[in-house]
Amino acid sequence: MTTEEPSTPDTERHDTSWSANLEHPEHAESRERVVQDARSAIERTAPGRHVNLVTHEAHGHPSSYLYPVLEDEFHSLDWEFVDRCGCGGFVTRVYV
């Protein structure tokens, strides 16, 4: 059992490059939540910047569930797999 508090949605616009932490307990429980929050993070990133989407290890590599959404909904953007983070999650960088 985790003692972490649920995440508070980040709703601010980001005018610099940043990282969206999608590794909270609610993200581990729901792939849909990961995709929803990734979508929101991209939409709140200023043009010319990037957002690192740090996804929970529980869902495996994001190519199996997140990349198809990026292709369908954000086809004009570029993204790349960066690496696995030390906690086991996956980092995908999306250039807005």
TrEMBL record:
Basic and acidic residues biased stretches: 23-37
Region feature (Disordered): 1-37
Protein name: CGCGG family rSAM-modified RiPP protein
Classification of source organism: Archaea, Methanobacteriati, Methanobacteriota, Stenosarchaea group, Halobacteria
